[in-house]
Amino acid sequence: MGRNRFNIKYFTFFILLLAFISIKPTLGQVFNPWGPPPNDKNIDANFLRKVLNHFSAEVAVGYGSTRYRQNLDTYRLFSNNNGLYLLGQDSSGNQIGLSNWINQPQIVDSLDTSSAIRFQTTELESDSNGTYIIDSLEQRLVGGGNAIPIHLKIHFNYNRFRVGAGATFEINSKANLALKGFPDYISNYESDYSRFYTKKYYLTAGVRYYDFWDFSYFADIEYGIFRLSNNVFPAGLVSLSNYWNVSLPIEKNFSEYFRLVMRPSVDFKSINTFMPSGESINTKMWNLQFQLGVRISFPLFKDCPIGNCEAQKEHRHGSKKFRGQPIYKWQNPKVGENYPYNLNEKREAFPFLKRK
Fold it and tell me: What is the Cα 296 distance to its own chain's centre?
């Protein structure tokens, strides 16, 4: 009888040991303080927000300098104290002058060139009232004007690459040009307009080639069309080409959704103006620009609706997931509360907008 009791005790102990071993992993998972319950599903953003998260919008304003350049080697020019003119002939063979030939050529038939001095390479006395005919040497008309560009771009971002489209509106000032290398007593060309507007529509592509701390460095290219004010550059007199733009923007990352953009760039474009004689003159209108703006991405999760919630990283309330910071603040995945001196607070973009 004693032996049977002994066997029953060991058998009972053995059964209890097997039961404990089998339920121990389950108990460990249920009470694991470092992870979610075993049956809790990972909360993910919906498909639409995942797609929209790849899109960003950029808006910026800046300053530009338009550089004009013409090759006039095949033309004769006349300079007097009233300005600079192209010399030509009308249909009857009479000599005429042309003004405003960049945008709206005007015939000037009252020019007196009989006493004009043929410009030579030798030094001449400076005479602001003198008249000169220029029909040799390299005749490059160069100069510039100012511009204020405003642009809006929409990008689709994937890893380091992005493609998109955009539009730019520019306010342009008058142009002042001079013959390169000629003395100051040769008159300048001044446009007859005080301002005009440029509209550009384009496709764009770029790559992020370097990251350093909170900065990202890009190389972008644009290709598209541009339109000039028709009252200044009439469509019947001026033909336009497509244009290219190359830029090297630098972005300061305030958060994964909000960035300050510094965009230096250069436009390559030109126009052709038709003369009354049937010829056309090509004018390069390159534009150097620097623009400052912001780029905002569509957030993956909504902002937490609980005003007194102090979570900074992505977190859950019930069956939904939220981001813990406003769109302009960096979301530090290692920080869970708004400790007043942590790194997250130091990187705050606009402290006066801090959630109370």
Answer: 13
